[in-house]
Amino acid sequence: MALNKCFISLQIVNGYFVHFFAPPDLPRVPKNVVFVIDRSGSMGGQKMTQTRDALVAILKDLHEEDHFALILFDNEIITWKNYLTKATQTNVTEAIAYVKKIRDNGCKKKTCGTNLYAIFDVHFLIRLI
Question: Where does the VWFA domain lie (predicted)?
């Protein structure tokens, strides 16, 4: 396939880059997407704002045949729902409202930090229906 028939984009921001390369006319494949969001105290301020903004943009980009889940973690694991949710307009709207309320925990709890071990067990929390 000739490169002039492919979508190619390179974005560089703050010393980081992403390179998109996609042939045209690929059939769309339904996706199962699990968003795992760090909401520990280290995510305060602009980091959390950027995370929320990115999540909202990605959620709006999902198609109805896609499924998604939201998992928050710090010293505990919180799931928005315990299953992959179909990306209907209603579900995406509800998820966006939920995402807009996500805040870092700010280490105001008695136990602070990030429980990375628990996040590896999260696959037991989410099921496809």
Answer: 32-116
Domain range list for the chain: 27-128
User: pTM score, two decimals?
Assistant: 0.71
How many Å apart are CA 107 and CA 113, to the nearest integer?
7
Each residue's pLDDT tens digit, 114-124? 655 555 555 55
DSSP string, 34-93: EEEEE-SGGGTTHHHHHHHHHHHHHHHH--TT-EEEEEEESSSEEESSSEEEE--HHHHH
Residue 70: how many other CB atoms lie within 10 Å: 21
Q: pLDDT (tens digit, 9 = 90+) per residue, 25-72?
A: 888 899 999 999 988 888 888 999 999 999 999 999 999 999 999 999
